[in-house]
């Protein structure tokens, strides 16, 4: 392969809205047979909206939203943005957070108005020895059954409520996934979110294989497991929690609308955050390499 011909390929990539780290990337692009797709922010818009606030018995719904909103104001996850935006809209400026910690793929922790707060998966709350009361387990189940993302909120040693978020599949995702299949590639949906929310998105866009409920390290393991089966794996993601998996994959593709961590870890950036550009990039690399043979 002559470097010049490959660079022409990368130039055309830029026109298509794809930035390629170096010409050598194209060779891997051509060999890919499996495409692992992150859910939130990659297949979906990642602009979540808070759709339900469920306080535990005896907890004030406003207090739940205000404290959770103040905590999540310091976060970057689509869940954090949804909760903080809903709280700010209702209450205006929110109190500050001390000792904020982002437990990647699990949730967030911090102190607001003297209350030690934690918001996230039930597994994170379990780290604090906290168990959801029956009525909140039921609310969380109902939300997940409906394909939504739900997080639990606790402060001062008690679980105080559940917040329910909805996300929307990007209008271009289903066509892009059909495009990947046309190229002979197998799509796999990979997410830290719950299995039911993942299945509902997978169904909407035409993906059969789903790996859900994984921690960021689990995303790396999922990619490695496919590679161990002899697959050549492309991974598409946008989050900090996707960076390690993007680096592990044979080809990492980052959403240009995503985090710097994802973009730095990837070989290729889809500038407009449109999955259709991934299909174009793979088609382009095959065409380019055919021209120079
Ligand atoms: P995804 O793979 O869909 O991008 P993540 O791995 O980032 O998901 O997150 C997995 C789960 O961790 C979320 O569904 C949520 O339960 C919890 N979580 C992550 N970040 C937060 C946050 N800022 N607030 C509350 N929960 C969170
Ligand atoms: Mg994501």
TrEMBL record:
It is found in: Cell membrane. It comes from the Bacteria. Belongs to the cation transport ATPase (P-type) (TC 3.A.3) family. Type IB subfamily. This is Heavy metal translocating P-type ATPase. The lineage of its organism: Bacteria, Bacillati, Actinomycetota, Actinomycetes, Kitasatosporales. The chain holds residues 409 to 701 of 755 of the full protein.
